[in-house]
Amino acid sequence: MSTKRTAHIISHTHWDREWYLPYEKHHVRLVKLVDTLLDKMDQDANYRSFFLDGQTIILEDYLQVRPEQKDRLSKLIRDGRILIGPWYILQDAFLTSGEANVRNMQIGHQDAKAYGDVSKIGYFPDTFGLVGQTPQLMQQSGITNALFGRGVKPTGFNNTVSDGDFESSFSELVWEGPDGSQVLGILFANWYSNGNEIPVDKEEAQAYWERKLADAEKYASTGELLFMNGCDHQPVQLDLPEAIQAACELFPDTTFVHSNFNDYLAAVQRSGKQELSTVKGELRSQRTDGWSTLVNTASARVYLKQMNQLGQAMLEKVAEPLAAFAHVLKVGEKYPHHLFTYAWKSLMQNHPHDSICGCSVDEVHREMVTRFDKSRHVAEAIIDDSKQAIADAIDTSDFILAGDGALPVVVFNTSGWERSGVVSIEIDALRLYFRDGYTLEEASAFAKAADLTGRVLVDASSQPLPCTVEDLGLQFGYDLPDDKFRQPYMCRKVRLTFEADKVPALGLKTYAWVKREAELTDSSLFTDERVMENAAIKIEIADNGSFTLTDKKNGSTYRDLGVYENTGDIGNEYMFRQPDGERPLTTSGLQAQIRVLQDTAYQASVEIVHEWEIPASGDDMLDVEQRDLVYYPHRQAQRSTRMIPIRISTVVSLSRSGQGVEIESSFNNQAKDHRLRMLFPTDLTAQTHHVDSMFEVVQRDNTPAAEWENPSNTQHQQAFVDVSEAGAGLVVANLGLNEYEVLRDGRNTIAVTLLRAVGELGDWGLFPTPEAQCLGEHTVRLAIFPHTGEGAQYEAYTAAYQFQIPWTVAQTGIHYGRIASTFAPFQWEGEGLALSSMKMNEASGDVLLRWYNMRSLHAEVKVRTQLPQQNFYKSTILEIQGERLAVEADGSLTLPVGPCEIVTIGIQR
């Protein structure tokens, strides 16, 4: 080649903490690797640089075993030879929430700064596709680049690259997010191991570099060529300086440099001569044959996704806002930053793609369940402390006038919008402490004898409300005071279930169960044994257990909702593969058992039971093909002819104020090698649909690109998917069911995957995973919200977001307090905006509120607070104090929000 070229060799190891081996076996290898790296760098100044995979958790994992090596490691980081951060872990993009990704960046920066500089590299070497808001997240983190291996064009292992219709002309490109943010994108076109194991022997090196240089030049837009010296769990190449020297002697027209990402990116930007392609939005390998997108990791081991959804919601949507609420009101303890960091780290250790994607060996996923529990238990402890501190500071004295023996209860709405819905709380109607001299027998006798009749639930204005009371009987309990030994007691426990109405956003509303005579009018949401109806919608249950939903706002009717579909799956944890020629089984022709489950003034529920039979497993050929490592698209296996029963119980519920219908499905899976979905035909005319993703409601095509050969077109979702036409639409929300498909069946049916059962990991060898068959009991939850379009869809999206967030409730006593019985510390308005977070910043002590614009239109957010504050400022996802914002005469703030912008406002107090 006539122009000078530079080969930038970047040493690294891509460190999957757990995958085809359990965590600790990979951990042992990591310790050996870092030991070797430290020795090599101390002994050889020519071994210049090593990139520690963009994740600071590697430092934690190493120093957990080798704490005595911290000084050596720290010095090499300070000297710029080992580059760390910006992430805490390398997370999957589509299966982790926006706030989880923000915490990941925040904690990665926090941990990296303790050692030295943070590597400002947007590193996504093997992420299974990338969300469209990544460029904005990078820019808000002070990062102007993104390096990735998947999504733009098909890239295989062993340096093989597909010759399809690429979306980018070069391996360098401009990546633009929906808000207009741009970063320099670097595609690992020949994978992140294209400079692996460089030969020292000159004959081998000659052949190696002739091939490698040609491969890189095939896609590079400049003479600055990138070679990644490492791969998954790759040991350090100790003779790399000698290998580089040999290359220099063999190719005098090429400068070989043991480089780093900063130097490489600077060189690319200096020498850029070609016009780069601009790629916009999500990187999901849309222009491929569809067989290797790894999208079905969204449905592998669904139980993990459900635990993750709950864990994220408990931290970011309940614990953080409640702890911030308690802190700004100066009740209870200070905001527990240390506990949040610990809980988030425990949760994020489950977020790498081989973990949350469910595509590892069984031992890995057993340990994940424990981590999910650990993180959730910390969140629950924070929630319990925060809610009780707030509840005990509420002025409940007015309830004295509402009736005798008032027992106040507080309902917290930690979502970003006013909320109504059915809540349950277990309260102590009578509590007798052993410290007061009661024997066990005496306490039990008193508690059993307590009269619970003649009571009614009232709101703060003493109006009685419909309420279901369940006497749970005598129970043991205990307090754990901060200033004395544990305090055991016996109590008479009661469960109250009622509809909380119009609880303010990020606020609370107080009720009380009192002794008082009250006449409540009997009413029902049933207009027939199989028909439920409120002011907004009507539900009619058919003989086969499906139901029809009528939207009263516009008269739209959606039929055949809730049919189950079952197909075989001869794929693996990564990808679904239906047997050739198989016709799906459905419950559409199956008679269901139907009964009324609940009939109250505030809620109606129907239980639908299907006694079904499905094939027991794949046939014998599947085992043979798995052992022979037959690539899953080429398999010929079918389903077994042996049938086994599966009993599915579906509860369909409608509340008095509900804008949609909730569905809970329970079943005991004893079949293998299959997929179970629930179908929601929309019968709407639409070529595209909208789906919830990270900080974005993204539009996707119903029909894949012409290159797509896979019969399945499943995709990722987070909270919901929406199919709509002018004047009508249907939103299907879920809890931890991250896979859906809009079927090309003439009805634009939304199919949501409830379970996918497979028996092998897949990828580069045979790794049996019997626990991925997901045998045993499962419960899944969904909700359906119709809308009228033309802006009304955002109300449905709001309901779908609130569906993700558990209600929080607390019992308190009769007392004076500084907090009103209905209260919220902040109020906000903003059309088309979604509130994402309310938390405290550890460094500044400020309250941070974050929104994102769901629309590609300009908007504004108006914020008011009832609390004293010094000033408002606009920040970024790193939550650094920015320029002070002007406030209006009433103390409120109005801030413009750009299309699809993520906006963070700090409130300095």
Automatic annotation (TrEMBL):
Keyword Hydrolase found: yes
Matches recorded under SUPFAM superfamilies: Families 57/38 glycoside transferase middle domain (SSF88688), Galactose mutarotase-like (SSF74650), Glycoside hydrolase/deacetylase (SSF88713)
Superkingdom of the organism of origin: Bacteria
Methyltransferase keyword on record: no
Keywords: Glycosidase, Hydrolase, Metal-binding
UniProt xrefs under InterPro entries: Gal_mutarotase_sf_dom, GH38_beta-1, GH38_C, Glyco_hydro/deAcase_b/a-brl, Glyco_hydro_38_C, Glyco_hydro_38_cen, Glyco_hydro_38_cen_sf, Glyco_hydro_38_N
Domain Glycoside hydrolase family 38 central span(s) in chain numbering: 297-372
Family to which this protein belongs: Belongs to the glycosyl hydrolase 38 family.
Protein name stated in the entry: Alpha-mannosidase
Record organism: Paenibacillus plantarum
